Each structure stands twice: as structure tokens, then as C-alpha cells.
Amino acid sequence: MNQDNLAVGLRTARELIGRDKDPILSEDNPFEAMMARFDRAAELLDLDPGMCKVLREPERQIIVAIPVQRDNGELDVFTGYRVLHNSARGPCKGGIRFDLNVTLDEVKALAAWMTWKCAVVNIPFGGAKGAVVCDPSVLSINELERVTRRYTAALIDTLGPDSDIPAPDINTNERVMAWIMDTYSMHMRHSVTSVVTGKPIEMGGSRGRREATGRGCMIVTQEALRHLGLPLRGTKVAIQGFGNVGSVAGELLEQEGLTVVAISDKTGGFYNANGIYVADALSWIREHRYLAGYPNADPISNAELLELDVDVLLPAAVENMITRKNADRIKAKIICEGANGPTTPGADKILDEKGIFVIPDILANAGGVTVSYFEWVQDRAGYFWSEATVIERLNEIIQHSFQDVLSVAKRHDVNMRTAAYMLAMERVAAVHRLRGIYA
Ligand code: NAD
């Protein structure tokens, strides 16, 4: 592409999003944050402006009304979303979250992240995400089941093992997946296990799925330490968010000889320079639900945790935790993004200037979707693997993906995030070019 064409391409890309590419504007909106990274990678890839339009636009955005009878007999109507971002490489894959604050923009960003994530680890899926706007903590189990089943029924034409495959996300779990699988199967008149992943093992779930995202975080952290010539033993880790991803990553990193010195959840954080024994913190949570009151470390705030003098910082909570406001005070050498979108584009620049090695979300937390892919493969084959096989294959895919991203980063002299986007977008674009546009 010559300079004039490139200029037109870039202008078109900016016009499409209706603003100049200013990362500051992207600070809080996850879709804007995703698009800021997309634009940068598109520019470096010299991606055709038409292809940019294809890749940025979600294929489908569905909004459904979910009428539900409450236990007291009253009727409520919840709003549900499902966004299918891109299915060029295969069926759309992505979790469902139940959350009072979720927006369509957030679901769009998360769906696009799934497309890039599946492409980074080179599994044959596109990206999707879904949500129900509700506060599950005030719903009874029976009400949650009715919400889930009615949401599934509303999406019955979209869902399917060859089209759209949900999984758990924030505030949804194995039990919710079982209700989705059952509702879908009742409509199909036969059992369809491969319509969701993250199911209970008894009904077609995969061994190793629960630990998969945390395990992926552990693998990429090891790879990053090796790449930077840093030791494993004694390396200090701070983990924000002590749920599925954070706690499993903590346990596995501890097994590898690293020392977890700080942990937190939404009630606050705890620090112990000599190390926090992850199993001990988990048993406290089992008894008390939250970390609050944990006796074997000193209380700190979530903000203080992010700024601790540690080697590895593992944000595993929610979006927008590392921003322009605090990035400058972060001391970690490595940030492993267990959460989706924990770092804003404004913070990226500051972290780069400080020389912090960021393992981006679409690589760092891709272990979950990789084992979801294994689950789908096992369901379709009707043949189930041992945990050792799952772990071995997961290791291979995540290690290779890390090296793939690293070699793009070196080749183009860009950071790991930009490299991951470039790798993923080029893989999706390549399939679009091969398939052509159906008219
Ligand atoms: P989870 O609900 O099991 O745990 C979330 C943890 O974060 C909890 O400890 C919660 O108290 C804490 N938290 C919530 N808000 C917080 C805040 N403002 N400050 C500090 N801590 C806070 O969820 P999870 O499955 O562990 O997911 C965590 C992140 O990882 C999310 O961004 C999710 O999208 C992402 N993710 C999860 C998976 C998976 O397989 N579970 C896969 C890929 C990405």
C-alpha cells in the first residue's frame, strides 16, 4: 500500500469510529479500549480498510426481554444480550455473565476479545459473549434457573454446537451451564452436550476445565520469566481478584516455587512479605465467603496491592484496574492479565515507557477457552481424556502461542499486546480472504 492509500485507510478507520484515535477517550469504555488496540494493530498490519470494516463489526447483536415470575408471584422482565462478533474461523465461543452493571458495549468488547483470543491460540472458533442484566445475589436458585432457561429459549435459534457455544463467566457456573444444556436439549428433542462448555464432568464437562484459565496464567508467567532471564524460585507475586482465575493461578505458581505475597478480593487485600499460603487463604474463603478478616497477613487496599514492589502482578478481577492514574506507580516487572481488559490503552503507553512486560489478556487468560475447545471436541467425539492429557495439550498450545506472539513482537518491534492483536487479526483476516464475501 502506498502512503496515500495508507492515509486514506487510516482516515477511514478513524471515521468509522467517529473520533480521532486518542487513547485517553478509551479509558473506561471496554469497546473503545478494544478498538484502540485494534486500530493500532490494523495500522501496523497495513490492513485493507474494507477488511477493517469487516473485522470490527459484530456479526449479530441480540437483545432479548426475559420475563420471569419471581418466587413471590410477581413478574419481572430482565434484559439479555448475546453478541456474535465473528464466525469466520468457526462457531462463536464465549461466556455468559450475570451482572447488574453490564452494558451492550461491554458485551461487544468481550465478544471481540473472544475472536482475537481464539485466533491467538489458533483454535477453530470465533468470538461471542452474552449477559443478563441482573443481580444474581438477590435471586433465589429457582429464580436464577427460570432466568437462565428463558434466556436460553430466547436465543434458541442462535445457540448450537456449530454456531454459538456459551461458557461460564462472572456469576455463572457449572450449574447454569447444565440448565442451558438441558433447555437447549429439550428444544432439540435429544441431548446436545456440546452446546455449552464448563459443564459438570458428569454430563460431558472436561477434566481440567475449572483450573484451565489459572493454569494458562501460570504457563505464560513461566515463559515470560524465562524470556526475561528471571528465576522462578522466590519470585514475588501479587494477585488482584481471588476467584477462579486468581486463586488457581496462585496455587499453581506457588507449586512452581514462586511466592504469593499479596492477594485481594472485592472486600480488600492482604500482604505478607514472607508469603501467603494460598490453600490457607482458600480455606478462609470457604468458611467466610470473602477474604475480609483473613488473619495471616496485613490488610491493604486493592489500590495498594497494584503498586507493591513485586516481580509479577496478576490482575484477575475486573476491567479498568490499571489506568493512566496508577500505571506510573506500578513496580512489577511482569503483568500477567488474568482478567479481561484490566489495563486501559492510556496505561499501556506508561507501562511500555517503564519497560514492564505485559502478557495481554487475549494470550494470558486463553487457557480457559482452550480447554473449552477440548471439552467441545470430547463431547463431539463422545470420548473423554484424562486430566494428564488435557494438561499436556494445554501446555503445548499456550507455550506455542506465547512464542508465536513473542516472535511477532520481536519482528515488528512492538509490545506483546500489539503483537497478539496483529497475530490474531491477521489470522482472522486470512480466513476472510480465503472464504471471500458471499453475495
Ligand atoms: P470470579 O467471580 O471467580 O472471581 C473474581 C474475583 O475478583 C473475586 O475474588 C472478586 O471478589 C474479585 N473482585 C471483583 N471485583 C473486584 C474489584 N473491584 N477489586 C478487586 N477484586 C474484585 O471470576 P473469575 O472467573 O476468576 O474471572 C476473573 C476475571 O477473569 C474476569 O475478568 C473474567 O472475565 C476473566 N476470565 C475468566 C475466565 C474463566 O475461565 N473463569 C477465563 C478468561 C477470563
In words, what does this structure look like?
This protein is an alpha/beta fold and 439 residues long. The protein folds into 3 domains: 3-56 and 428-435, no CATH class; 60-191, 3-Layer(aba) Sandwich (Rossmann fold), CATH 3.40.50.10860; 212-364, NAD(P)-binding Rossmann-like Domain (Rossmann fold), CATH 3.40.50.720. Helix content is 47%, strand content 16%. The protein has helices at 3-17, 30-45, 49-56, 104-120, 141-154, 174-188, 209-228, 244-255, 278-288, 302-306, 345-353, 361-364, 367-381, 387-412, 416-435; strands spanning 60-69, 75-86, 92-98, 126-133, 164-168, 236-240, 259-265, 268-271, 298-300, 312-315, 334-336, 357-359. Strands 9-8-7-6-10-11-12 form a 7-stranded mixed β-sheet. Strand 3, helix 4 (104-120) and strand 4 form a beta-alpha-beta unit. Helix 7 packs across helix 8. Mean pLDDT is 93; it is low at 1-26. It binds nicotinamide-adenine-dinucleotide. Nicotinamide-adenine-dinucleotide binds at residues 169-170, 213, 240-246, 264-266, 302, 316-318, 338-340, 365, 368. Residues 169-170, 213, 240-246, 264-266, 302, 316-318, 338-340, 365, 368 line the site of nicotinamide-adenine-dinucleotide.
- The CATH superfamily label of the largest domain reads NAD(P)-binding Rossmann-like Domain
Counting DSSP H or I runs of 4 or more residues, the number of helices is 15
Distance between the termini: 26 Å
- CATH topology name of the largest domain: Rossmann fold
Mean pLDDT score, rounded?
Answer: 93
Low-confidence stretches: 1-26
* Total DSSP E strands: 12
Helix-strand string: HHHEEEHEHEHHEHEEHEHEEHEHHHH
| Radius of gyration using CA atoms only | 21 Å
Describe the oligomeric state of these chains in a short phrase: single chain
Strand order of the largest sheet: 9-8-7-6-10-11-12
State the major sheet: 7 strands, mixed
CATH class of the largest domain: Alpha Beta
The amount of beta strand, in percent, is 15-25%
Helix proportion range? 40-55%
- What structural class should be given to the helix and strand makeup? alpha/beta
Distinct ligands: nicotinamide-adenine-dinucleotide
